[in-house]
Design a protein that fits this description.
The chain is about 45% helix and about 20% strand. The protein is an alpha+beta fold.
């Protein structure tokens, strides 16, 4: 299995290299790359990749000996769709794709299902897939205890409705681990007698607990629901898992600053940046007067953002192996998403 994954990673890099090595001649075009594999991550050379949706884009090609393909000079701003076919396998159909000028869209590993298995595969709508993804995410726990609800391991992207965004935020904010985490931080502040400058004793601990929990909840609700619903952005971290370590590291480090919009496009992460600043400002009001100030608000926001970067790095390289119930997502790749 490790060898298979290594080959897939190599093929992904090869596909990207093909695209970069054949940059579109027209700056108003884009490229699509990917690797075709079976359910066991074995590469599928010679698979047929067809693209449709625009007369100037309609074409087909075969994957190379490493199962990789690269389609260049595709029109930007036009809805496109990809179909992948191989003997003995069922067809794979992409969701609608809208390229931006100069974009190289990496579809990563496209899994084909053996035709005999398709009888058990039911078509489903994007709305149903979104609900299913949230339900599965709510079972993900780091070390089997800590909530890890905001990480998407499913490679299919479907937008979350505002209702689902609020559901994830409230589920996280009210999880027992969130209360225990705030209590733990309050205990550390109490023992070290650091800012915020509250008195000692039960009263001081209660205030420290309130400050810690208020900061956590406002950041979760604002950055995970209110602003994502307002800016039409997805608050989840999308696990990459493939490609070079450098590409995965850049993917993780950029997550607080780049988000996936509900339209599927990558865009500035206003939800996270504004959410961190707003959360820090609200927490600042809860602190004693000696611990307030505009400078402290920005300092707090930077600390939250820094913590996000560290968390994303751990999510990409460490936490997947330590998170329970992520295996459920492997079954979802068999379901084909159809528009209602």
């Amino acid at each position: 299995m490790r060898v298979g994954r290594a080959l897939v990673a190599f093929a992904v890099i090869l596909a990207a290299t093909l695209a970069y090595g054949q940059q579109p001649t027209n700056p108003q075009t884009g490229s699509i790359v990917g690797v075709v594999v079976d359910a066991q991550d074995a590469l599928i050379p010679g698979a047929t990749v067809k693209i449709s949706g625009d007369p100037t884009a309609d074409r087909s090609l075969k994957t190379n000996g490493e199962g990789a393909f690269a389609i260049n000079d595709l029109p930007a701003g036009t809805t496109l769709r990809i179909t992948v076919q191989a003997p003995g396998f069922g067809d794979w159909n992409s969701d609608a794709i809208l390229l931006t000028p100069g974009q190289i869209l990496d579809l990563q590993s496209i899994k084909l299902i053996v035709a005999a298995e398709l009888t058990s595969v039911a078509a489903t709508t994007p709305e149903k897939v979104a609900v299913e993804q949230v339900e599965l995410a709510e079972r993900q726990r780091l070390f089997g205890v800590l909530p890890n609800f905001y990480v998407a391991y499913d490679t299919r992207f479907v937008p979350l409705s505002p209702k689902l965004k609020y559901r994830l935020a409230l589920r996280t904010a009210t999880d027992p681990a969130s209360f225990l985490g705030a209590g733990f931080l309050a205990g550390i502040d109490q023992a070290s007698d650091v800012a915020p400058h509250y008195e000692q004793g039960a009263s001081g601990y209660g205030k420290r607990f309130g400050a810690a929990y208020t900061g956590a909840v406002t950041d979760i609700v604002l950055g995970g629901a209110v602003f994502p619903a307002l800016f039409h952005q997805d608050p989840r971290y999308f696990y990459k898992g493939t490609g070079s370590k450098k590409s995965r590291m850049l993917h993780a480090m950029s997550s607080p600053f780049v988000a996936r919009g509900d339209n599927g496009r990558w865009q500035p992460n206003y939800s996270s940046m504004v959410g961190d600043l707003s959360s820090s400002a609200m927490t600042n009001l809860y602190y004693p007067e000696i611990d307030r100030g505009v400078g402290l608000v920005f300092k707090g926001a930077l600390e939250i953002t820094g913590a996000r970067i560290v968390s994303a790095m751990l999510q990409e390289f460490v936490f997947r192996k330590l998170t329970t119930n992520t295996h459920h997502h492997s079954h979802n790749s068999k379901a084909r998403i159809v528009s209602p």
